[in-house]
Specification:
By secondary structure, the chain is mainly α. It has helices at 23-51, 58-75, 78-87, 94-127, 132-135, 138-164, 181-187, 193-226, 231-259, 268-293, 295-306, 308-312; strands at 12-14, 91-92, 173-174. Helix 1 packs antiparallel against helix 3, helix 2 runs antiparallel to helix 4 (94-127) and helix 9 (231-259) runs antiparallel to helix 10 (268-293). The radius of gyration is 21 Å and the shape is globular.
Amino acid sequence: MAQANLTCWKGFVFLGFSGFGELQLLLFALFLSLYLVTITSNVFIIVVIRLDSHLHTPMYLFLSFLSFSETCYTLGIIPRMLFGLVMGGQAISYVGCAAQMFFSASWACTNCFLLSVMGFDRYVAICAPLHYASRMNPLLCAQLVGASFVSGYLFGLGMTAVIFRLPFCGSCEIQHFFCDTPPALSLACGDTRLSELGILILSLLVLLVSFFFIAVSYVYIVLAILRMPSAAGRRRAFSTCASHLTVVTIHYGCASFMYLRPKASYSLERDQLIAVTYTVATPLLNPIVYSLRNRAVQTALRNAFRGNLLGKG
C-alpha cells in the first residue's frame, strides 16, 4: 500500500445519510421494503422462467440473467446501507471499500452488456425471424451471456484499480452511502487528472459502446417494423421491444449522469438522489416492467401463483 494512503488504511466513513437524523429510521423502512420487493420479484422472475417451458427462449434466458445480475448488484450495496441506517455504523474498511466498488462496478457493467445482448436478440427476432432459431442457438446464447459477465468483471477490476492506486492523504469521509467511483475519486489528493481520464474512458467504453449496439439494433428494428404491411403486425413487433426500451432508457440515463461527468460537477445531494434511483429503484424496475408488459410472463406468473408450476416441480 502506498505511503500516502496511510491516513485511510483503516477504512472510510460514509456520510451519505448522516444528516437525516431521525428520518434515518423512516428511510430504513422505505429502503428495506423496496429491497425486499426487488429481491422477491427478481428471484420470482428467475424461478418462473426456469420452471415454465414456454419461456425457455433466448429472450427470457437473457431476462433471467439480467434479473440475477441486478440481484447481485443490490446485494453488494443495499444490505450494508440498511445496516448503517439502523445501527449507525457508517464505517467500512479499506479492503471492504475496494471490494464493494469492484463488485458493484462489475455487476453494473454486466447489466449494460446484458441489455445490449437483449437488444441484439430483438434485432434477430424481428429482422430475421425465419433464421431466429438457428442464429440464436444455445451455444451463441451461452457465449453472449459469458462474455457479458467476463467483460463486466474486467471493467469493474479496471475501475477499482484506477481508484485505489491513488493516494488518500486527506479526509477519509465519503460523501455517499457506498464506495462508488465518483465520491471515492473526490477524496484522492495530488494530480488525479489521469485517473479521472481513465474512469471516463472505461465508463465511455461500457456505456456508449453498449448503447451504440442497442441503438444500431433498434434502427434496423424500426426500419423492419415500418416495412410490415399490417398495423397489427407492427404493434405486435413493437410490443416485444417496449419493455426492453423502457429499462434501457432509465438504466442508461441514470448511469450516464453518474459516470460521464467531470469531477468538478459532483454534488452530494443530487448525486445521492440519482444513486438511490440507480441502486434501489432501477433493479425493481426490471421485473415490474417485464411482468406488466409481457403476456407470456403474466401467464407464467398467474400459473405460478395458482400452484401449477410449483406443483409440477
